Amino acid sequence: MMSRTVSSWILSSARNSIVLQRKGRLYSICIPNRQKIKWKLVFSKRLLYPAASCSLDNVFSLKKAFRHTSTEEEQFSFQLSPSQINDILRAGELSHKILDLNSKNTNSVLRFESNQLASNTPIEDRRSAATCLQTRGMMFGVFDGHAGSACAQAVSERLLHYIAVSLMSRQALEEIELAVECMKPVMPILQLHKHPNDVEYREITSQYFENLRVYWQHLLDLDIEPGFSLEEAMVSAFKRLDSDISLEVQAPQENELMRNLALQVAFSGATACVAHVDGVHLHVANAGDCRAILGVREEDGTWSTLPLTRDHNAFDEFEIRRLKREHPRSEEKTLFVNDRLLGILMPSRAFGDVQLKWSKELQHSVLENSCDAEALNIYQYVPPNYHTPPYLTAEPEVTYHKLRGKDKFLIIASDGLWEMLSNEQVVKLVAGHLTELNEQKPQLAFEKPVNLGYMHNLLLKRKNRGIASLDQNIATHLIRHAIGDNEYGEVDQEKLAAMLTLPEDLARMYRDDITVTVVYFNSETIENYYRNNE
């Protein structure tokens, strides 16, 4: 249990610049005087080089009335009321139920629920969800940014469109190209499911569209029939978008705003995990250390976990061997230093991060032509032992799984969740939440005759089960447990309040940004598929 003594120790340790150990990794943050310098040096699980601060507003940041801005504040309190805690935790909730038209729902996705909680200011995580309109299926993505939110923001806006275009038939691509040429309206490719406060790069949308158009023109030139497989489409989309991010910062820009945005996107980074669900066919493309797992209900009623991704980092033997194959033997001892790629970056696959992809000469040339002296100080950094780039790739690892009736839900989350909870704990929490929700559904069979006394007793029983306190959004439920659980797996309200009120210069030492999307499957639709295809 987190007592006031522990809360006081947290504050004292921060003010005395004590570096804390968590999950076997070192965390520390150093922020220079904001009046004197506009960039910050971040020592975290992600990066160990200067990082530009993104100018985007943080739509999911804690309200200033709740969250402190500095450990130097004199009036410092970890106290929050239950309603304040709920307001903070539920601010980023998003849910969407698939419409059951004429009671004939053939979609294998029943609904999805998502949420985010910031640690960084602004939050560096992003998420996306969409229904494919020109092809079949739905897509869900989680993107974990580092060195700012710019790259994660761009990838979250663009990647699903690149995947959708990669899946379209030649005829469909020709039709949209003809519409653009004739300046006619283009049929939408995706129906996006967004939170009302999700931010967009509106200033650069036209350039993003033009580069997407260049990509589909490239696909038309390839003249591949019958087109990409889903795995090929996802790999092609990831690699092409990362290439476009790299090329956009090298190309002349219309104005200073677009030039600075292109720099921020290219020199920050983001890991990505995207799931595509089409009937019983589930594909997951992952680059980095976001994670996707399935919750499986076995025939005996127990729950099991099926991982669909591997964390691409220094703890994965396959990644270590891959990088050793791609670089000279003389670099074997310097590829990973202190469990980081070149001693710099935790994930070994990511979008952006051109500092780990470009040659020294290209970096120097682009920065000399694009930056003033102040910006040059932010971006110009060459890691030690930088001899044979690229060291980093955005090429994803794609996993295919054929859904079964016992596959009940898919969880995609940034590593902020997985640092706090194991795969098994997450599945257990979702399964328990499902059970509680089912228990709370109104009884359809009543004792006869139904009288006021019976109804009163039924309502009391429901109230005693804690209906009012239950999170309706499962992603919120997971975040609550991730940051508030004690050693017994129970939410400690005092610990939860303390974790939510940690100031900006301390929060990152205890928790990362957390983004969670949970997709529930329609078991009846999946089972009907097998019955009809036996």
UniProtKB/TrEMBL annotation:
Going by the UniProt record, its keywords in alphabetical order are: Hydrolase, Metal-binding, Protein phosphatase
The record ties this protein, via CDD domains, to: PP2Cc (cd00143)
Q: Does the keyword Flavoprotein apply?
A: no
Record-annotated PPM-type phosphatase domain positions: 109-521
Q: Which domain of life is it from?
A: Eukaryota
Please name the Pfam families in this protein's record: PP2C
Protein name in UniProt? Pyruvate dehydrogenase phosphatase catalytic subunit 2
Species of provenance: Anas platyrhynchos platyrhynchos
